[in-house]
Amino acid sequence: MSLVANTGKLAGRTLFITGASRGIGKAIALKAAKDGANVVVAAKTAEPHPKLPGTIYTAAEEIEALGGKALPCIVDVRDEKQVQAAVDEAVKKFNGIDILINNASAISLTGTGQTDMKRYDLMHNINTRGTFLASKLCLPVLKNSDHAHILNLSPPLNMNPYWFSIHVAYTMAKYGMSMCVLGMSEEFKPYNIGVNALWPKTAIATAAIEMLTGDVSTSRKPEIVSDAAYVMLCKDPKSYTGNFAIDEDVVKAAGVKDLTPYACDPSNLENLLPDFFLDFPGMPQLETKKEAASGGQIPNLFAAISKTLSADLVKKTQAVYQFNVKGKEEGVWHIDLKNGDGACGQGEPKNAPDATLTMDTQHFADMFAGKLKPTTAFMMGKLKISGDLQKAMKLEKMMKSLKNKV
Question: pTM value?
Answer without folding.
Answer: 0.75
